[in-house]
Amino acid sequence: MQDRTRPHPEIAETGGAAARPDARKLYVKSYGCQMNVYDSQRMADALAREGFAEQSGPEGADVVILNTCHIREKAAEKVYSELGRLRKLKSAAEREGRRMIIAVAGCVAQAEGEEIIRRAPVVDLVVGPQSYHRLPDLLARAERTPGVVDTSFPVEDKFDALPPASDAATRRRGVSAFLTVQEGCDKFCTFCVVPYTRGAEVSRPVTAIVAEAQRLARAGVREITLIGQNVNAYHGEGPDGRSWSLARLMARLAEIPGVARLRYTTSHPRDMSDDLIAAHRDLPMLMPYLHLPVQSGSDRVLAAMNRRHTRADYLRLVERLRAARPALALSSDFIVGFPGESDADFRDTLALVEEVGFAGAFSFKYSPRPGTPAATMEAQVPEEVKIERLAALQAVIDRHQAAFNRACLGRVFDVLLEKPGRHPGQLTGRSPYLQPVNVDAPADRIGEIVSVRITDVGPNSLFGALESPRRESPLYERAESLAAGA
Ligand code: SAH
Ligand code: SF4
Ligand code: F3S
After folding, report:
1. Which domain holds residue 432?
2. Are residues 195 and 214 in the same domain?
3. Which of 242, 347, 361, 375 is the most exposed place for a label (fewest CB within 10 A)?
4. What is the DSSP letter of 185?
């Protein structure tokens, strides 16, 4: 159950739409974090209004967009190998007298700009994350003259300028949706490219977020995950002209009929404010599962990372969160082999994992990123040591994760039924802890939250049986009538 908190860190495709025969064909591939998944969907939505139909592969596409990630070297390099494959498809298209426009978007686009075209001349357009609302225009320009680069940080709000998805497109994407509320980061952890690729922290206004959540709910979405690179630093303008916190925003979203579950990710420990901790106590629809990256258990390393919190701060925070919501489970991110990390520092990280008992966590080998302070720090850790530490850390994380999952056996969970399962007659849903749960249930119950007793725990998912045949109401009836009117 590694990828429970997000489609991280590899690839998530945005999925194909039903094509009109005359539609131009679009393929979007997302790398990296949930924000890229969300952005890919918004790009596809904007281009749908220009007559593009999204498809699930690059073959025969008129436009291919790679929405890239720059977080680690491996992530960035993946883009170039994909461009190598696309070069062949593009040449084949040209032999048939067709054009294939290739665009590179996302954080590699922002970080490398024109360099991408120098290295991969097959690319027609490079577009940074703050310019997606100009995409139709940029594509038209790239079609006339290949080699267009737009990595500016314009003043206008791209979210307001990007047209929303149609209800039908939203419905096809399912009952759980991402909603970006905040973008960018002012924290400048010394290892991280995000403040450079996504820019300064910007919060969307409350009314725009509420309107988007209402649209999602109207299209049958039951669970909304609020996303931002530093989501709990949210401080958007409220309808009263004041700055609203994430907790206050969630309390407002909780009033929207149809929305049954809220989550938010990713948070920084420094921004876990009192009212946000209280929200975990007071807001039942806020799911009891929190991704709270700590990166290291050593104060020395945390200071060198510029995390601006100590190990003790983090542990105290976990205690307060668990006091507010005893059922809360936590996940985290770790970096091993940060410059100067000693064996003793690493042991502090292992000890922290033992102490907190995470339900899951992502761990990464430190990857030097050009332009970040840590890349030029002395005492870079040798690759063999990183490999060793990563394996040791992952073993401890896996043990805790397996214990957490085993402890679910026999428990009854609310499960949001999301999609057909692997076997006929089976549906897959998510527990409050984001675990996939397989259960025998008819397809017309997708979108319902049902009581499921966990009867088996597999390596990647849980299995369970419906506790009661009763249908959810009145939300279910609402979903039904909405679907009928669709
Ligand atoms: N906004 C997110 C950052 C996304 S990056 C957040 O603050 O959580 C997700 C994770 O990638 C980070 O938490 C960190 O653990 C890891 N990461 C970031 N930069 C890295 C680097 N240079 N090398 C290795 N891992 C890195
Ligand atoms: Fe990167 Fe740190 Fe900001 Fe997270 S908080 S995005 S790790 S700089
Ligand atoms: Fe990657 Fe950019 Fe997200 S670097 S993790 S796609 S913010």
Report:
1. 412-485
2. yes
3. 242
4. -
